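Hi R.,

Here's the input for the 1-deoxynojirimycin complex you asked about:
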Amino acid sequence: MPLSNGHIVAGDPNWWKQAVVYQIYPRSFADANGDGIGDLKGITSRIPYLKDLGVDAIWLSPFYPSPLKDGGYDVSDYRDVDPRIGTLEDFEEMTSACKDANIKVIIDIVPNHCSDEHPWFQDALNSLPGSKERGRFHFRDGLGPDKSQPPADWMATFGGPMWTPTGKNDGQFYLHMYDAAQPDLNWSNPEVREDFLKTFRFWGDRGVSGFRIDVATGNMKDLSDLTIPWDELKQRRANKSKPGNEHIDHPLFDRDENFELYRTWRQVFNEYDPPLTAVAEAFVSPSRKRHYASPEGLGQVFSFDILLSNFDIKNYQQSIERQIKEAKEDKSSTTWVFSNHDMIRHHTRYGLPDIDPSNLFTFRKGFLKFLETDGKEPAVDWPTGLRRGRAATLMILALPGSTYIYQGEELGLPEAAAIPEDQLQDPYFFRHGRSDKGRDGCRVPIPWTKTGVNFGFGSGKPAHLPQPQDFGEFSVEAELPDPSSTLNMYRKALSLRRDLQTKEEMSWFDHGLGNQVLAFERPNGWLTMINGGKTCVPLPKGEVLLSSADLDDEDLPGETTVWIKRS
Ligand code: NOJ
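And here is the predicted structure with 1-deoxynojirimycin in place:
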């Protein structure tokens, strides 16, 4: 099958393989009705901006009805729109405007858990132990003479216990891997399976092109042995993610039964022409990743290893090699990503001291520690962060595969580190005894104008998370007229990439400049060189197409990437 190039052709089943996907966190993108919360009409109004930016697709984080106990990842109705965000008609208006602009729409599906306000969970709470209604979730009797102790000592990802009592005096507890407001669904139950197929078709029929699958490793569970201590489960999970140990059994994480489930989803995705795509959120070892990425399964998996890297040329090279090799073997394509709604924004990360990148949670937390400064200005080396962030971004945009851009990163937006505690929303903060500020700093509404109410995000009530005072400097209005702005670098890069990226191949380029430099070539003489050191190196011959910072005559300055066209 032919590969898509940068110009997406309607009907091409491979369009996603080299697409630039722009992640929208709907509540924080654009607020058309002035209630302080971003909405679908806001997104529609900004489609010309996205078209000019040059993205191929947008991925919407959850916009469904939700009590917002986890930023919308607690869904109370999978087949509707949160009234604070809009209506189904608004959704149709948005997809049709995207279609006109040749932008595909991908939406987030949250199958591992729903909201405790989902009618199914409410029915379950109001039904007896052992009932059909409780069978859609994981309810178990508590331990001890009065059944008041949880059935296991397991801990939720957001902190605190993973089992919560029903509050109905019936001695039962329910399982939730995240917040207590996010009960886990029982995927061994055929009714749950059927209902999600209905959800996929519901959105497929409304013109979406694909799905991002939240916690794709979690759905299938084996709860036959609740005596396994939590410390052991944590250890098993850590070991299972290491190559060679994939056979380790874990009751909650990365079970083989998931692959059979995804084959049933794939059959539904393939009912559409072109087939619907899916990208899995899965932190697993390469030999496991393969199953999620398989064309008979979801098709693509987020690769987080380049995100989980400090600004380090050697690490980048290893990660690139690994990811490209894996994607080829899996008949999939790579997914480059530096920022998303769960991670400290990369332009800020790169201005902080390095962190051990081996674990996602400690990685994020480690950076957060540097940003928590009791009201004082955090010690971010901002010029370095921005410079490195831009260089790293130009590197991934030149690589084969798809790239995910998180709203605001094209403006070089920094993490909003100083949100007052009484305005934080992330359950991570609450369930960690307020010791971890959580992920709100990357979810602050983005600035569109230099000044004015909410910096143009919306003209009514204050933005639902407060914007830092200097946000106007990073606004679209401030950056558009400035040829050297980060926004213009992204725009130029995406536009060039459309023409340059015709084939998937890449090869390392022998530069002879030592280990501070990484260079690779794509077909048609498109050469990318990254200088990861602090000192200048000579530029290779050819026409300079774009650079992440000003060039120095014949030299490539430190922490800079350049795109060159070699004749
Ligand atoms: C991963 C999502 O990216 C994150 O935002 C969410 O909190 C958890 N899954 C739980 O749904």
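One thing worth noting: Residues 70, 73, 110, 178, 214-215, 281, 341-342 surround 1-deoxynojirimycin (CB under 6 Å).

Cheers,
M.
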